[in-house]
Amino acid sequence: MNIALIIGLFGILLTLIIGYNIIVQYRTKIESAKKQESAKHMVIIDSTEELISNAHHLPYSKELLVCLNQRILDALRAISELEPHDRSYPGRIENMEQQLQQLKTDYTGGDSTNFKVPSNDKQAIVMLKLVKRLRDTLRAEHRKGRVNTQVFVAENARLESIQVRINIENVVKRAKEATQRGQAGTARQLLKKGIDALSSKNDGYSNKARTRLQEMLDELNNKTKKKQDQELQDQLDKHKDDDIDVLFQPKKKW
Fold this sequence. Notes:
The chain contains 7 helices and no strands. It has helices at about 5-55, 60-80, 90-105, 120-145, 150-180, 185-195, 205-250. Helix 1 runs antiparallel to helix 2 (about 60-80). The chain is elongated.
């Protein structure tokens, strides 16, 4: 066989092998990128479902629930496009579409639950973290154009109001507890912080809360002043009694 032909065939074979490896690597890279993208959408689904499951802790409006459910639906559709061979997603998409439509048409309005005052600092922190996650999610959906500006502004303001309310109600509770323990200084500091936090707010709740905190602070200051006045009077009376005792004590005989 001609040596040139052998070399030529070898070159063709080598080219085919290299080309095949390039194609395999390219496909592997594409599949890896798809898996990473799918995993990212799965994280979105899991985290959003967790937010929805906490609707009994905070008042969720219809608009907020629609936003969260739409976020899940969009993520499911994205995964279905990335993984068309997985037949489980069309069914999940259909169920979510029905759920979302039912939410839009049959939701009675109002909030999912009434606001519940946090019973302790730990619960207040959990509620505040939840509000922050909801605001971050709402902001992200607005940036993507999935929530119109009017809804975003209204919902963000509502969540901010809930955030303020959690903080203030927790301040009130802690101030009362500090007062009962006789820690007037701590209670006074908490009340002042609450009043300062409300100084730039002008909604109905903030105005009432500011008045409430100021009344608590005034009452605490009055009690403290009365206590100090009484302690001062007791000291004066004691000194007066001591002076009288000195005047009328029996004189020593030398």
